[in-house]
Amino acid sequence: MRTSLNISNSLNLIGEMTNDSRFQVLEFDELRGATDVDTAFDLNVLNRGGVRLKQVRVLLEDSAVRIEAGLLSYMKGDIEVSNKSGGVIGISKKFIKSKLTGEEMFKPRYQGHGEIYLEPTFNHYALVELEDDEIIVDDRLFVACEDTVEVKVTSQKTISSALFGNEGFFQTKIKGEGIVVLQIPVPEEEIFKCRINEDVLKVDGSFAILRTGDIEFTVEKSATSIFGSATSKEGLLNVYRGTGEVWLIPTKSVYDKMKTMRIKEDISDLDLDNDKN
Description:
The chain has a domain at 186-277. It contains five helices and 13 strands. Helices cover 23% and strands 46% of the residues. Strands 1, 2, 3, 4, 5, 6, 7, 8, 9, 10, 11, 12 and 13 form a 13-stranded antiparallel β-sheet that branches. With 277 residues, it is of the alpha+beta class. The relative contact order is 0.12. Strand 1 and strand 2 form a beta hairpin.
C-alpha cells in the first residue's frame, strides 16, 4: 500500500523502569491537530506553556501486569487478558467495595509477550519499584503494576482520620515486589519527599499523596487545647508518625485555586450571555 503521508511519530522517553516487564512514560511533541480556530488557540496555549501529552507503554516479556480498568488504548503481540473475579462472593465483595470507594471493580491482568499502550493524557506519572515494601497512596492514583504486586483498598484506622483528615475514608494500599505506575497531580520536580526517622510530620492540608506502610496517620488539633486550636486559625492537622517517607505536593493548592477561579469566570461569562438573550 502506498500513501502520501509522511508518518513519523515523535514520542520522547521521559521515564523508564525495568524488572520482569518494562514500563515507560512517553511524551508527545507539540500537538498540531487543530481543525478550527478555537482548538488552535487552545493548543497554542498548551504548547507555549510546555504542557505535553503523555502515554504509558508497558513491554511484556513473557510476564504479567495489572492495569486499572478503562485505561487501555491498544496493544499488540501475544497477550492474554483475564480477570480474577473470585466467584459470586468475590464479585459481590468487589461490587460493594467499588460503590463505597468509587474504584473500578476489576484490574484486568495482561500476560504474554508484546506491547501495551495506555490512554494518552496530560497527567504526570511516577514509576516506583517496591522491594518487599508497602505504600499507601491517594485514591485514584494507581495506574498499573507488575503481577507480583498486591493492590487493595484500605480504610482509615480512626474515625477522626476519616472524617477530618481530608484524605477520605478509603485509600489504596500497594505492597509486594515489583514496579508500580502512579498518576500524580503535579510534575516530579514539585514533589517533596519527606523522610522521617521515628519522628513526626504535621501537615496543614491534604497535599500528602503517598506514605510508606510504617508510618501511622492520624488527625490532631494544632494546639494542646480546644481554645488554642481555635485561636491559631489552623484547626486540625494531618499527622504522620514513624519511620519512612511521605510525599508532599504543596503546589497543588495553587492549581486548585486557578481551576476554581477559571470555573467562576466561565459561570460569570455564561450568566452575562444569558442576560443578553
